[in-house]
């Protein structure tokens, strides 16, 4: 499966990455190599092997429904690029 | 050109599960807290934090899925749904994609007013996911920034997706009411729409019969409907809008992508919103931080056995055991489990279930409504109301004084025996009643003559007089006795 320039443009749009012309070209090649590397797995005969949904053979890990202390608000907001004493501030959200 | 169309409706309901803490962390889910005081590294997506599944959230979702007749696969897992939005701090939502915890269920719906035939609405799937935060736009600040409150982030949601099986806004409303009632009986959610505990999105389009055969209009998803009434109005509006657009443009499904429209309740219209990303654009993949859940058929059976009686079961039982009408049954069941339990206790302690139903659905519900109260706080206990009904059945309390007795019992919370004493109600024995009637007839020869000449309604005038002489008389008996005596004269 080859990675095309259009693939890189679409993925970068979804990831909200603004790439320059050169970056798109470089990434098309590099992402292509990564996919080709992983694609080697398709050489393995997987007939009769159930698809794996998770890498670890563990299931049913639960926590009990108990309220624990949350972060103090100042700490929660501390790393935000912009905030007021109550909340995070972001550019106006359009279109609902 | 006259043209008929069928409206095709599918609903997506998000219901907030009634846990104390969030789906993957210990933050409180309490509504109405100060913004951003109920968050932690897990729910605001700090690097290195690890989500762990809340057992209660999973149990509540399993209970609900079983109650809507879903199949529960043995294996289920969680996936990351990637998209960017300011209220989604991790940049992805933990949801379920290809292996949801339940699928292929159904819900039976019917209409009290028989506007549609009872039907089964298929449920595609129900899956467990986390909620996002909220953005608050400060109007006063004009074009200023939006403020984000992440308290709701990570609250457990069950998304219940129906098949497009509804054909009118009335059917959609019935589906929502029945689902809400079921969720309330199960106690899995408070279903408060104002607080966002229950949210509804609708997918709607039209099927038309044209000269070129059957045609479907493009599917529209409607959002921002904040009440069941709003859902009904939005669907009615949208069907008409799509029909108009189809007449103008002839656009069919596939000619344009699925559109999202927001309902503007004040204006009574839907407005176009940003086009939705395709499912493939969400780049779902299994969340490596969460392990899958495996359930056994024994566990599922245990959940089924513990469900108890649900609205449909109660309806059947009330009709079968007590001979109530389906209308009365609906009134009782739709009031919620506590009212049904109250009725059952009243019916159990008296010999007239039909009267018990009438008292509960009429007087008790009216009194609760007037007082803006709930059944658990009602002053007349179920056994006391049963006592009242039984006193009527046994002739110890004339029907005419029953409402007085009810009012007094409600104010003072006393039983029927004390009430009868307090009201000075005495049983009027038959001979006393006959002599009273005879006295009245003797004093009113004209009425006797009228009755004898074929005007039995003339005795009506005597009933009022009898009641004045003795408030405990039963007007029905007075009428009968007066008629009998007048004929004998
Ligand atoms: Zn948290």
CATH class (first level) name of the domain at 5-43 in chain A: Mainly Alpha
Number of strands of chain B: 17
Structural class of chain B: alpha+beta
Radius of gyration of chain A: 22 Å
Indicate the percent of residues in helices of chain B: 25-40%
Average of per-residue pLDDT values of chain A: 90
* Average pLDDT score of chain B: 91
Tally of DSSP helical segments of chain B:
15
Strand content of chain A: 5-15%
The main pleated sheet of chain A reads as: none
The total strand number of chain A stands at: 2
Q: Supply the number of structural domains of chain B.
A: 3
Number of helices of chain A: 3
Rg of chain B is: 31 Å
Q: Fraction of residues of chain A in helices?
A: 25-40%
Distance linking N and C termini of chain B = 76 Å
Please provide a written account of the structure:
Chain A has a domain at 5-43: Histone, subunit A (Orthogonal Bundle). With 96 residues, chain A is mostly helical. Chain A has 3 helices and 2 strands; from the N terminus they run ααβαβ. Chain B is of the alpha+beta class and 489 residues long. In chain B, 39% of the residues lie in helices and 20% in strands. Chain B contains 15 helices and 17 strands. Chain B has helices spanning 55-67, 169-186, 228-249, 297-305, 311-322, 326-334, 337-348, 353-371, 382-393, 399-412, 416-422, 430-443, 445-452, 460-469, 475-488, and strands spanning 5-16, 53-54, 75-76, 79-82, 92-95, 102-109, 119-130, 134-137, 146-149, 156-162, 198-210, 213-216, 220-225, 259-264, 269-272, 285-286, 293-294. In chain B, a hairpin with a 4-residue loop joins strand 14 and strand 15. In chain B, helix 2 runs antiparallel to helix 3 (228-249), helix 12 (430-443) crosses helix 14 (460-469) and helix 12 (430-443) packs across helix 15. The longest helix of chain B has 22 residues, at 228-249. The N and C termini of chain B lie far apart (76 Å). At the A-B interface, strand 1, helix 3 and strand 2 of A face strand 2, helix 1, strand 8, strand 9 and strand 17 of B. Strand 1 of chain A pairs parallel with strand 2 of chain B, so a sheet runs across the interface.
């Amino acid at each position: 499966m080859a990675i095309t320039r259009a693939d890189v443009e679409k993925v970068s749009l979804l990831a909200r990455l603004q790439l320059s012309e050169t970056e798109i070209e470089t990434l098309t090649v590099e992402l292509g190599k990564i996919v080709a590397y992983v694609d080697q797995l398709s050489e393995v005969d997987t007939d009769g092997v159930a698809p794996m949904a998770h890498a670890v053979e563990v299931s049913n890990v639960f926590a009990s429904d108990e309220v624990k202390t949350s972060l103090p608000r100042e700490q929660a907001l501390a790393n935000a690029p912009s905030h007021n004493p109550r909340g995070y501030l972001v550019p106006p959200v359009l279109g609902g | 050109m006259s043209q008929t169309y069928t409206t095709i409706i599918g609903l997506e309901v998000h219901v907030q599960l009634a846990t104390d803490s969030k789906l993957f962390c210990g933050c409180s889910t309490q509504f109405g807290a100060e913004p951003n005081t109920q968050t932690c590294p897990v729910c605001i997506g700090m690097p290195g934090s690890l989500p762990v599944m809340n057992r209660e959230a999973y149990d509540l979702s399993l209970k609900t899925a079983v109650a809507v007749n879903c199949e529960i696969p043995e294996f289920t897992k969680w996936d990351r749904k990637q998209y960017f939005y300011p209220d989604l701090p991790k940049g992805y939502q933990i949801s379920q994609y290809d292996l949801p915890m339940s699928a292929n269920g159904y819900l039976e719906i019917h209409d009290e007013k028989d506007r549609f035939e009872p039907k089964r609405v298929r449920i595609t799937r129900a899956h467990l996911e986390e909620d996002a935060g909220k953005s608050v736009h400060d109007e006063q600040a004009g074009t200023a920034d939006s403020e984000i409150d992440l308290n709701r982030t990570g609250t457990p949601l069950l998304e219940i997706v129906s098949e497009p099986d509804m054909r009118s806004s009335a059917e959609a409303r019935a589906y929502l009411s029945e689902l809400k009632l079921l969720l309330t009986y199960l106690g899995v959610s408070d279903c408060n729409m104002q607080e966002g505990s229950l949210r509804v999105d609708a997918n709607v389009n039209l099927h038309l019969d044209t000269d070129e055969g059957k045609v479907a209009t493009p599917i529209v998803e409607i959002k921002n409907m904040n009440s069941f009434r709003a859902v009904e109005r939005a669907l009615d509006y949208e069907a008409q809008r799509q029909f108009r657009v189809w007449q103008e443009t002839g656009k069919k499904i596939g000619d344009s992508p699925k559109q999202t429209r927001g309902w503007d309740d004040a204006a009574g219209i839907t407005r176009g919103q940003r086009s939705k990303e395709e499912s493939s654009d969400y780049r779902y993949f299994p969340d490596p931080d969460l392990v899958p859940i495996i359930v056994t058929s024994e566990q599922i059976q245990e959940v089924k056995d513990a469900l108890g009686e649900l609205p449909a079961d109660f309806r059947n039982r009330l009709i079968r055991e007590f001979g109530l009408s389906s209308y009365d049954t609906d009134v009782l069941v739709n009031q919620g489990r506590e009212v049904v339990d109250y009725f059952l206790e009243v019916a159990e302690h008296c010999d007239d279930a039909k009267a018990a139903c009438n008292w509960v659905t009429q007087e008790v519900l009216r009194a609760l409504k007037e007082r803006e109260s709930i059944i658990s706080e009602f002053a007349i206990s179920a056994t006391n109301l049963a006592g009242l009904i039984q006193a009527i059945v046994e002739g110890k309390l004339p029907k005419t004084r029953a409402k007085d007795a009810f009012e007094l019992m409600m104010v003072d919370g006393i039983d029927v025996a004390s009430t009868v004493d307090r009201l000075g109600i005495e049983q009027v024995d038959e001979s006393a009643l006959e002599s009273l009637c005879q006295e009245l007839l003797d004093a009113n020869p004209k009425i006797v003559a009228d009755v004898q000449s074929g005007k039995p309604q003339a005795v009506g005038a005597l009933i009022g007089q009898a009641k004045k002489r003795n408030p405990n008389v039963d007007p029905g008996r007075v009428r009968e006795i007066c008629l009998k005596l007048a004929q004998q004269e």
